[in-house]
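Quick one: structure tokens for this chain, please?
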Amino acid sequence: MITATVPAATSTDILAVANIPVLWILAIGVFGAIILQSVVYMRAARKAGPAADISEAELKTSFRAGAVAAIGPSLAVVLVSVALLTLFGTPAVLVRIGLVGSAATESASASIASGTMGAELGGPDYTQSVFAVAFMAMSMSGAMWMLATLILTPLLRRGDSKLRRVNPALMAIVPAAALIGAFASLGIAELGKTPVHVLTVIVSAVVMGICLLLAKKFSQAWLREWGLGIAILVGLFTAFLAHTSGMAPVA
């Protein structure tokens, strides 16, 4: 009896190549670099703190606030990553979503790359060859992010120095305005999607405002640090309740 064999390149068993040991080794190496980089930055901040009139207590507070503020966004990334595991495998998801880029950007890059081969992500024609091309596109997309940062950071630093010489107070306003603009644009972009999105944004904003008011009124600095994390968690819970109650339109 003669049995036909399916060439590896045309196999749809994506996880067979998505979880190969070499990708796991590379993923572990990337996270090792992230940990080392974090340690270097924290040590540099502690060393430069006295020169900037930043006390050790203030540094600890800023580190703690940053860690707490990262909880909410990290949960959102984890939820998206779980959905992408069957498409890209664990190592690719850990590196691409955990290091650079965003779920939307990475998925868009992979989808465009798959489309050039006449395939669809997760579809019946999503073979190992298509996965390899999609993974390469995702990697190149992330590499461009890192190269842009490497090239543009020194240029922006020069502009920062010049602005500080012209008007030192301006550089205290520009970063705050940039952050407000970034978060506002992200929030406004979600408002027009579904009533669930509108409700989630409103509830999150209200919770954040309450946390800041309570922190100021009762002198509770921890509420200011935990405010963003609390607002995101409450927003996620609100979105879940609204979706399960049938508030979201049925596709």
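The two ends are 48 Å apart (CA to CA).
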